[in-house]
């Protein structure tokens, strides 16, 4: 693997020189916990056997396991105790020991490199000699805190990465870790390894659970260190650089979690564009988006479309049942999968489903966050879908929404447009629903684009879909009809966009006609702004986020071109070019923004919001009427019974 411009090679010799120290930590060290509490200690394992104090697991059934000696932390013994039935070290145990030693050595090497890049190394030497100036004590303390955070994060990051390929189907919920110390790098290591030992004592009755618990602990450690780092100083030298470790194909890039760039194995039935009948705008935008995401530059970790504007990070597809939402997903996933296979890029597709809702408090949110992180991974091309989002994500204030559904809503809102959301352009998320009016308003507005999945509409559409679904096992003639001619995408899309020159929803059409009657043709920004204000007065949910989504959609229209198929078929023409060249090639294809584009996108977006609001209000009214009818009937029966 070639290094990118911002990467430095972390030499193997610089890592291996820390092996003796790492091995010593595995064999044993002393640590008195400062924040966390040790597992419960019992005076003896069983009456009359021993009077030596030993750590005793609180997990039922594990009280007879061999545990660590009370005179220190011995991770090697703890790991080997995961299978008391065998006196030899098992392969999973050996793998875990090797991974921990390797992660410790990498953490020490990166911390050492950081110290040499900053004044920390000189201040350490001065402090050791007793010559540390009083004026620099605060700086020294802050640098030690930074070193501790870096050490903890790299330890967790490297360990999670090294263990990832050994994980099986066993999962472990280890709870929240606590012993994350920030005094200095050495103490941070001691605290982390002490708590790892405690974690294994409680959650590793066998090798499978040991692997899962070690990985779960590593994931939590890197997340905790990342959160602490948000308020710490002197971290720029670490955050702005990347260290690549050739032997492990591991890149430590600031506080980003490292992961192996693996594709997911897709078993879905892919659909070709001509097999999607109707849904012209949705199909067109999905086809464009499939090619847009392929423009992502793995070296720069940025997509030119994300920089120039016009990249769709989140979109919502809504329509009646049976109009083709699943088919649209199968088409888009199939296109991206084929493009990635041709270019040799890793591709991940994942769907967040109702299986991810868990009755255990906090678990639903964890499942949603894992889904988001899997797709966001900057080392892959990702496509994430949330089908039937109205069932999955709860609506705040709705008494029928479960705690798990509300957890998922919170995670999706923070991930799609939160303070820490970074759109690199390597992935996109699609939310689909038959009943978008039941989706939380704030979450729905985080969908930057709207795909109206309305299915077949015209006579030609219905002939095409019948012809398609009938297959070939018949002799019925087609008749006077040119198969799929109505699905010619450019002609159909042009007509669809043109239809939005005036609103479709009756309530919005009244606003449009009133504003146009007052100020005339909307051909300036001031007049279009007046139209937007009038929409807001009619629908208070039409906020600044709606304006951003509209302008993003306008920028997408400015990119109203489809990257040539040859660029996808022959990666050397575009995909394998450097970032600046790809950006210039895209800019050459960009079109000017027109008044018609802006009006059409305002109407498209506002139509969808009015459609959702009308449905939502109507459903609420119907439910209220039904409830009143029930109460009236209950009252009548009650009075009859007491009469």
UniProtKB/TrEMBL annotation:
Top-rank taxon: Bacteria
Domain ATPase AAA-type core: 319-452
Pfam families registered for this protein in UniProt: AAA
Entry-linked InterPro entries: ATPase_AAA_core (IPR003959), P-loop_NTPase (IPR027417)
Name of this chain's protein: AAA family ATPase
Taxonomic source organism: Ruegeria haliotis
């Amino acid at each position: 693997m070639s290094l990118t411009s911002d990467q430095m090679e972390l030499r193997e010799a610089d890592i291996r020189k820390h092996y003796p120290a790492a091995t010593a930590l595995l064999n044993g060290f002393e640590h008195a916990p400062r924040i966390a509490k040790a597992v419960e200690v019992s005076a003896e394992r069983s009456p009359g056997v021993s009077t030596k104090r030993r750590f005793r697991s609180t997990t039922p059934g594990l009280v007879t396991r061999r545990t660590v000696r009370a005179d220190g932390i011995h991770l090697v013994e703890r790991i080997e105790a995961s299978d008391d039935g065998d006196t030899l070290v098992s392969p999973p145990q050996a793998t875990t020991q090797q991974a921990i030693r390797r992660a410790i050595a990498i953490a020490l090497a990166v911390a050492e490199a950081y110290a040499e890049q900053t004044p920390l190394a000189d201040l350490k030497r001065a402090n050791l000699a007793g010559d540390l100036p009083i004026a620099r004590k605060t700086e020294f303390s802050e640098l030690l805190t930074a070193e501790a955070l870096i050490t903890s994060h790299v330890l967790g990051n490297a360990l999670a990465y090294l263990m990832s390929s050994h994980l099986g189907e066993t999962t472990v919920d280890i709870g929240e870790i606590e012993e994350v110390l920030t005094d200095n790098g050495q103490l941070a290591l001691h605290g982390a390894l002490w708590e790892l030992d405690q974690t294994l004592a409680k959650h590793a009755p066998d090798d499978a659970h040991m692997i899962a618990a070690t990985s779960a602990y590593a994931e939590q450690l890197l997340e905790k260190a990342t959160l602490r780092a948000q308020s710490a100083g002197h971290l720029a030298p670490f955050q702005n650089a990347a260290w690549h470790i050739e032997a492990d194909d591991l890149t430590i890039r600031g506080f980003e979690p490292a992961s192996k760039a693996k594709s997911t194995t897709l078993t879905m039935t892919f659909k070709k564009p001509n097999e999607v009948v109707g849904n012209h705008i949705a199909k067109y935008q999905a086809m464009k988006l499939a090619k847009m995401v392929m423009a992502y530059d793995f070296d720069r970790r940025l997509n030119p479309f994300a920089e120039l504007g016009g990249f769709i990070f989140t979109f919502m597809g809504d329509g009646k049942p049976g109009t083709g939402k699943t088919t649209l997903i199968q088409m888009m996933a199939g296109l991206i999968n084929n493009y990635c296979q041709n270019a040799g890029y890793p591709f991940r597709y994942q769907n967040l489903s109702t299986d991810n809702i868990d009755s255990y408090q906090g678990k639903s949110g964890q499942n949603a966050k894992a889904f988001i992180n899997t797709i966001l991974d900057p080392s892959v091309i990702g496509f994430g879908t949330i089908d039937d989002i109205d069932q999955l994500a709860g609506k705040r204030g709705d008494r029928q929404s479960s705690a798990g559904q509300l957890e998922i809503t919170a995670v999706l809102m923070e991930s799609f447009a939160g303070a820490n959301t970074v759109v690199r352009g390597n992935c996109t998320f699609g939310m689909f629903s038959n009943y978008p009016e039941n989706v939380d308003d704030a979450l729905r507005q985080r969908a930057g684009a709207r795909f109206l999945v309305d299915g077949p509409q015209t006579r030609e559409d219905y002939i095409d879909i019948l012809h398609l679904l009938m297959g070939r096992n018949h002799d019925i003639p087609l008749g006077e009809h040119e198969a799929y001619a109505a699905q010619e995408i450019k002609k159909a899309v042009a007509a669809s966009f043109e239809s939005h020159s005036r609103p479709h929803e009756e309530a919005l059409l009244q606003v449009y006609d009133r504003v146009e009657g007052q100020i005339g043709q909307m051909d300036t920004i001031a007049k279009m702004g007046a139209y937007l204000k009038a929409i807001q007065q009619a629908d208070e949910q039409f906020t600044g986020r709606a304006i951003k989504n509209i302008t993003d959609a306008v920028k997408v229209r400015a990119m109203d071109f489809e990257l040539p198929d040859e660029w996808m078929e022959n990666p050397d023409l575009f995909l394998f070019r450097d970032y600046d060249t790809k950006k210039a090639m895209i800019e050459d294809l960009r079109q000017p923004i027109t008044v018609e584009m802006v009006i059409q996108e305002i109407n498209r977006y506002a139509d969808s919001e009015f459609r959702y609001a009308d449905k939502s209000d109507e459903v609420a009214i119907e439910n209220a009427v039904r409830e009143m009818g029930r109460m009236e009937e209950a009252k009548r029966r009650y009075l009859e019974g007491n009469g």
